[in-house]
Amino acid sequence: MSFQMLTFEARNRIAVITINRPDKLNALNDATIGELGSAIDDARSRDDIGGIILTGTGAKAFVAGADIAELAEQGPVDGRKRSLRGQAIFTRFETSPKPTIAAINGYALGGGCELALACHIRIASENAKLGLPETNLGIGPGYGGTQRLPRLVGKGRALQLILTGEMIDAAEAFRIGLVNKVVPAGELLSAAEAMMQQILAKGPVAVALCIEAVNRGMEGTLDDGLAIEANHFGLLASTADMREGMQAFLQKRPAVFNGK
Ligand code: COA
Predict the structure, then answer these.
(1) pLDDT band at 212 (very low <50, low <70, confident <90, very high)
(2) What is the domain range of residue 73?
(3) Ligand 1 center from residue 24 Cα (angstroms)
(4) SS3 64
(5) Distance between Cα 175 and ligand 1 center (Å)
(6) Residues 185 and 220 in one domain
(7) How sure is the predictor about 1, in pLDDT bands with cuts at 50, 70 and 90?
(8) Read out DSSP for 156-196?
(9) 109 CA closest ligand 1 atom index
(10) Over the chain, what is the mean pLDDT?
(11) List 94, 114, 126, 219, catalytic entry
(12) Whether the predicted model's global pTM rises above the 0.90 cut
């Protein structure tokens, strides 16, 4: 698969997807969003890939937002269509049974912040700046920001960020729970890869079902979520991975999972 707007590298069972429009601070034009859809589908379907890291080229920006030059031309019908298309593609990151980590290497604004929000985990470099500045442009977030941000940081903090359009630094993003971890810029990718390897050492079926239980549980009632969890708990008891994990513990050795 070849890409114009991003690079896709598979190494040590990790797909590293790097958005690559540094002259536009990796802004998401429609073509880049389409390629992100192909890249996540490819990574999800490949047996040699267990997890996905998403980052941006350069030291300045992860993604500085949707491409404003394209947005400036839109009318109501194509604006809605653009939003729905981007939402559907970002959701492919959120619903991936393989873990997704956003390695935020600089500005993560607007659509960039929303893309990071669709990933399971966010690690930021110390120079990262995050925000949803759409209201500065007379629009609102269109790629999931009004929905995923309050679920992550709470309604009050989300509304503050959305309504003021303010940018916050990595330390503040960590303080409010918008990012999981902050590391020096030079250590960002290695930190993301180290966390991913930690996850890839676990049972892949268990990991996939935990992602699904958290995703689905967040959208339903506690009772429905608990039912999903119990069903997964029973289902996992049918796997060779569960037998291996428990035997390995009892035999005082590391477990070797095969995803079956
Ligand atoms: N869409 C399109 N182009 C963008 C962009 C975006 N979201 N963000 C940056 N760019 C382009 C700039 O137009 C500029 O292109 P040019 O060199 O052809 O003029 C280039 O990227 C560099 O950006 P610049 O603004 O010169 O860098 P800066 O260091 O002065 O400022 C930002 C950095 C991130 C503060 C500023 O670029 C910015 O505010 N970007 C828009 C953020 C935004 O509103 N995002 C939400 C969109 S819905």
Answers:
(1) very high
(2) 6-200
(3) 6
(4) coil
(5) 26
(6) no
(7) confident
(8) HHHHHHHHH---EEHHHHHHTTSSSEEE-GGGHHHHHHHHH
(9) 45
(10) 98
(11) 114
(12) yes
